[in-house]
Amino acid sequence: MLAHMNRVEERITANGMDLDELWLNVRAGKEKALSELFCVSYSWLFKYGYRIIPKEAFVKDAIQELFLVLWEKRASINEARSVRSYLCSSLRRIIFRRVRKQKNRTQRNYSYRHHHNEELQNREELIIRFEADRERERCLSLAIGSLSDRQKEAILLKYYDGFTNAEIARIMDINKQSVYNHVSAAIRTMQDHVQG
User: Fold this and answer.
1) Which range, of 68-72, 90-94, 108-112, 152-156, averages the lowest pLDDT?
2) How far apart are CA 32 and CA 83, in angstroms?
3) What is the pLDDT of residues 144-169, one digit of tens each?
4) Nearest alpha-carbon partner for 36 in 58, 13, 64, 70
5) Cα 17 to Cα 12: distance, rounded to the nearest angstrom
6) CA distance 173 to 88
7) Domain with CATH 1.10.10.10 in the chain
8) On the CB side of 100, how many CA atoms lie within 13 Å of its CA?
9) CATH no., domain 1-118
10) pTM, whole model, 2 decimals?
């Protein structure tokens, strides 16, 4: 109920327009509408992106890229059945693309260092980075518990953000039955984990 109320409040902007009206105005090339859409949606887009990858600067950059792409491609963007789910799924694609690029860059850098047998200049920096990474992994694994990534995403979208199964299916690019299966399996797993 609370998630639904928050979604209704987020749909209405300061000048009384809803997300659908803003979307139409962005597609029509109205820069002010893009700015307002950014302001209205930034908070929940950031929360969603941060759950995918808990790196503040990374998520902020991805949101900036999303709105830059929206503006650049405004003439060719289709009408959205749900502006909110369209923005979330677009942000999700941008984040995963950026993560892949970052991994590829990291692998290239590692291969280069390994190939040239370079020694790390600062051993303490490596130890600190390793410890910080290990602590982040520990915290992340505690937070995720025993859920798979797909289960976690489906549960958060359904119960935290209040999306319907159809909207979740569009965001995650799966069918509605798969959404139901992920949610049901996640609930069972969490119950077993709590009871065990």
Assistant:
1) 108-112
2) 17
3) 467 888 888 887 888 778 889 899 89
4) 13
5) 6
6) 12
7) 123-196
8) 6
9) 1.10.1740.10
10) 0.55
